[in-house]
Amino acid sequence: MEDKANGSVDTKSPVENxxxxxxANWGVADVxxxxxxxxxxxxxxxxQDQEIDGKSLLLMTRNDxxxxxxxxxxxxxxxxEYHVKPLQTQHLKTxxx
Length: 97
Description:
By secondary structure, this protein is an all-alpha fold. It has 5 helices and no strands. The protein has a domain of about 50 residues. The radius of gyration is 12 Å and the shape is globular. One of its GO terms (cellular component) is nucleus. This is Sterile alpha motif domain-containing protein 13.
């Protein structure tokens, strides 16, 4: 990922060098762009509406995603299990070493 002049991070590729990106420094727009790039165009607006930046994303629980974003259950489950949880795990592994 590359830092842009406006301070956001380029999130066009959800996977970088075989690893998920670390969203700790993402702004709200980066989170929205990440979910748009991973096929959740419609649901990405929920992250915008709730002003979820990278640090907030890393703090989200399963319940936050399922109920706090007001998105349908099916997409919410996929977003949490296949994106939020793995991003959190990757962040913890990266920062533990």
